């Protein structure tokens, strides 16, 4: 859920035919023409030539499991167009393709971060690309000390990788008459990514390759709708990877009990990590399983009763919650059993004058006693400098990509950033004001019964709690055969699971086995 504040990307020159090359007075509109009509005629008179797609291709190698893999990296842009074939945006990507592989049988995975508004620098430089930023765990970084190097846990031995930045973020920009707002919305963003993936696939002759989409955070909400949109446009996926998921905003709003049900198991896992629970079990998995059962049973029943809950039941449930999440019974009762994220972050380590991270509950920061809300997220501020410094050095020195543009850490840097949250799920007659793209993913899985979904989760992710995704999938009402196509994996980390170096090898093993299963279909 992160939104972070090089040959020029002047890819679309707007020509005004018939005008001399010097400034002219603006012609006055005839009195009988409205302002809107004049503006439309001016737009019609504007000719936008095709935008060039730029790229820099370089050769590299990386060693994985003792085997040296030679590959090429392509840093470049694809141009997406409207229905009249006019260029509307230049979307930046970095693709890694294994040398000597047969493109028709070689899987290709399209990867993106979330935000909404974030570039894909985090997954690109932190997870399964052939290079990776080195960060400690979990500590505040020093950007000048941490660098990047070969990634032995890259997925390049299993799949080619294409990391894509959304319009407005990174080096991706609107073209011609298009503005950022034309792409800044749930459905607008999905349309842009669908066009970019279709364009890249056609340009690189990869239609016969197995194809996977891999999104993190808001990128998982994008993936649900994107899976359906790609299917609807003729590109069938083989797999969808969901990392730190939030696919349904509708049931995760303050005032709705499902918000608190989603959070409680992650609160318990975080309290377990900080040793704030009595008789702490040695292993986290059975402990979380016990908390899940309590959450979906006694806790859900208690919340459903609202203020009509019996005092004895209130005491009993609050006491059991205290044993799971490490907060005093009195605090839990005063909150009417409904523990908000900010309350938990401030109260868990209050006696140590520490607040905990939202993106990763393992991280701690100094508490500001003056306010009720933690004034910064230590899990967010801890890594930003290292990633941005490493990417800017890597893209120019190693990949040879140069542009006069700055790499936007957030689409909001273009100005006027206001996300349109309306979404029209497949099969629905009207748009939802709070999106739920699990409905779209369910539709894609019904149309494409072989589509496999892998959910990767961090135990200590408080921004997109794992139990929320579990709820969303259980309410997709899939047929038994399709339910078996959904699998889950959990790791001792937070929202950006890959920040914990200890998770990389096991997560890579899980992903490798999953990619092998795609081939065995």
Automatic annotation (TrEMBL):
Region called Disordered, residue ranges: 23-59
Source taxon at top rank: Bacteria
Comp. bias (Basic and acidic residues): 25-43
Tell whether Signal is among the UniProt keywords: yes
Q: Which Gene3D superfamilies match?
A: alpha/beta hydrolase
InterPro entries linked = AB_hydrolase_fold, Peptidase_S10
| Record keyword DNA-binding present | no
- Keywords of the record: Signal
Pfam families assigned to the protein according to its UniProt record, in alphabetical order? Peptidase_S10
In the UniProt record, the signal sequence range is 1-23
Q: What name does UniProt use for this protein? A: Peptidase S10
Q: What is the lineage of its organism?
A: Bacteria, Pseudomonadati, Pseudomonadota, Alphaproteobacteria, Sphingomonadales
